[in-house]
Design a protein that fits this description.
Layout lengths: L6 H20 L2 H11 L5 H6 L3 H10 L10 H9 L13 H8 L9 H6 L1
Helix pairs in contact: 5-6
């Protein structure tokens, strides 16, 4: 039985999953509460109530197709930037400048202007 998955694709997936686990391990309860607030317009109230960890947030964003491995991670970068966790951007292999240049275009923003203002 042959496996058609490219070895490089497996490494990318493993690196992505490792990055998500590392980010989760470094998020505190205040960070998770902030992420829940910033994402609350994307999730139902019951979904938000079930979120207990950074991985829960990441999985919910993946299920909503708001982030995906490894190409579409700027939304997660936007969230990390907003909650002041710029230190975690390197785990995604993106820089603060990458996120800020993406956010310069208002249409690239995922978080609503209201949440930007309130947060």
């Amino acid at each position: 039985m042959s496996n058609n998955v490219e070895p490089d694709a497996c490494v990318v997936r493993l690196n992505y999953k490792t990055a998500m686990i590392n980010i989760n391990m470094q998020l505190g309860q205040r960070d998770i509460a902030s992420l829940k607030f910033l994402c609350s317009e994307f999730f139902s109230v019951s979904r938000i109530e079930r979120i207990r960890s950074g991985l829960d947030v990441i999985q919910a964003l993946q299920q909503m197709c708001l982030i995906s491995e490894p190409d579409n991670i700027l939304f997660l970068g936007e969230l990390l930037l907003l909650i002041g966790r710029i230190d975690l951007l390197s785990k995604l292999n993106i820089s603060e400048d990458d996120v800020k240049s993406s956010l310069a275009n208002m249409q690239s923003r995922h978080v609503s202007p209201y949440r930007y203002t309130v947060f």
